[in-house]
Design brief:
Rossmann fold, alpha/beta, 12 strands, 3-stranded parallel β-sheet, 11 helices, 3-stranded antiparallel β-sheet, 2 domains
């Protein structure tokens, strides 16, 4: 059966800034099933690039959470905190083609560029100040990618054909901070290529990042992966799930004795692949994986504090 489908490489990429919650778990389950249902590879990357946000013990906890759920991967994990030279090499390649330019303004925006953006964080369009009039000051510059006015078009497995104008969306975006650390957009592109990732499954709050990453792929001579952006998961109160809430954290559920099969069953039911209350493990869901059943709107899980 698997030979009827193309082989891909999917990925799991937890950010250890807190304990993984049910929303993270649902996305990882979908990513794992999408690859494993065709007999394909899954790789693991720990997005610990922003050391200031990485909490002690959460890297180990993220790995334990994934294993507890029954999600495995191929090869050794890749840690972004150990990939600095690769990001510098990518920056230097972009510099040789004048695809980027130094920027000395908007410290807050440069700081925000390090991590994956969330909904509501991208309402500022950079006006191109340093591109139009190069400046210097006492600080080392950040580096911005020079965006053209041409819209970026791509196909998403859930959203269909997308057409986005990065210039109108955010303008020239930061790919390297002024302290020498790569921003989220560049690190993601470089590491996906390094690990051979051909399918990216993530929350649809990152849909707006996709055209930026495609532009970076083109500038670096890389092939973009295919994308699947899934709707966010809300708690019983209709709020977006947060890592600080014990009621939705996997570690807290595990510590209170909730079986992994119960958690996976709840997540699978929200995707249309299991009955309400059914207990099931990821490997048992492989023959049930059907993207057509996946809801196109945010889903609520019956979890209360």
């Amino acid at each position: 059966m698997w030979l009827l489908f193309p082989m891909i490489t999917g990925r799991l990429a937890p950010t250890p800034s807190g304990g993984l919650h049910l929303g993270n778990a649902r996305t990882f389950l979908i990513a794992w099933l999408s690859a494993r249902a065709t007999g394909s590879r899954v790789v693991l990357r720990i997005d610990d690039l922003d050391r200031a946000r990485v909490k002690p013990g959460y890297i180990e906890q993220a790995i334990e959470d994934l294993r507890w759920l029954g999600l495995d991967w191929d090869g050794e994990p890749v840690f972004q905190s150990q990939r600095g030279p690769a990001y510098v090499a990518a920056l230097q390649q972009l510099q040789t083609t004048d695809a980027v330019y130094p920027c000395v303004c908007s410290r807050r925006e440069i700081e925000m560029a390090l991590h994956a953006p969330h909904a509501g964080e991208e309402d500022v369009i950079y006006p191109g100040t340093c591109r139009q009039q190069p400046r210097t000051n006492h600080r080392p510059p950040a580096w911005r990618f020079a965006v053209t006015n041409a819209p970026v078009e791509f196909d998403d497995a859930l959203h269909g054909h997308c057409r986005m104008d990065v210039a109108a969306q955010c303008g020239d975006f930061v790919i390297f901070r002024n302290d020498g650390i790569a921003a989220y957009q560049l690190a993601t592109v470089v590491d996906d290529d390094f690990q051979g990732v051909t399918e990216v499954v993530r929350g649809d709050d990152l849909l707006s990042s996709t055209p930026r990453q495609i532009l970076l792929c083109r500038a670096l001579g890389l092939t973009p992966p295919r994308y699947l952006h899934v709707p966010l998961v809300l708690d019983a109160g209709g709020e977006r799930m947060a890592k600080r809430r014990d009621s939705t954290r996997l570690a807290a559920l595990r510590e209170t004795g909730v079986p992994a099969a119960q958690v996976v069953g709840m997540l699978a039911a929200s995707c249309g692949w299991a009955n309400a209350g059914e207990k099931i493990l990821p490997a048992e869901l492989l023959p049930r994986f059907d993207l057509a059943k996946l809801p196109r709107q945010p889903v609520q899980l019956p979890v209360h504090d």
